[in-house]
């Protein structure tokens, strides 16, 4: 038993500790493990650590170090029994994710790209997007018709592709919908179909999560010729740019193939013009902050200053409303009216203060989720808390007057 435990502990490397610490957000442990891996070659266990680091995405500096060490001594890979058996499989993560190709950590990385985040990257549990699998090619016999029936008019989507034989993982983000048929304005009957129809957007991108040329270092390629960013076609699958990333069905060979020639997006994502597709998946992307965006849009269209973002505006408005709501019970509390009238007059304030507490808790969560500027968020609470303090003080005085009338206060 002791020998088994010892062997189990010996099999754990510093890279395992580093990745585990990153997953569960033990940042100090993660930092120390990374520091040792960067400074000491002896901290690496090859080939196991190289295979492990290739299965993860964002550890660019560690991957470069590992690749340099392997290039210096390739025999640690090619003369090892582990090198032949540990092929690159689905990229791993501590969180479950409904995909045969990517992990939850990959979804978090893609979410960063969608939000164009430069700092404070998302962890999977924090991402503001919902990834719903709506199409898996192997379950639909790679049918283009099934792609259109399941994915057309579904809003923003992410496409994930696994290349046959090489195991390369590439994909793209479409902020628009996919479509194959046009609809008549007077009804719902299709008048004609789309054939290589060019759609304009500046928010789409294509990417590589693992490639033979770039390894496990992610490669992002944003659109620069936005007038032809997305292509709609009834006889094709998802298409980005002028063949920057297209999915087609080869009728002569009865296989689904991809085309990838850099044209509309700023860099190529794979060193092949044509490739066979082993599997591809499509996820519908739903922004959990949809209501927040609508309210922000309303605020901006009304010409309100940028400082009046959603939390500041709604909390301040709520505080003013709450303050106003205690004016009536204040008047009733100090005049000679029936005690029941006084009590009923306080009910709106009691209800509002309860709703206010719930709203405040919700907005704290939204503020954390959306990473709203701390200065603005604090300003909103200072403003609303001022109204709340005045209202709460008045409400306590009112209740004391009522209790005194009921002879419950000495």
UniProtKB/TrEMBL annotation:
InterPro entries: TLDc_dom. It comes from the Eukaryota. Keywords: Membrane, Transmembrane, Transmembrane helix. The keyword NAD does not apply. The chain crosses the membrane at residues 310-336, 343-365, 377-403. PROSITE patterns: TLDC. Residues 100-286 form the TLDc domain. It comes from Cetraspora pellucida. This is 389_t:CDS:1. The keyword Signal does not apply.
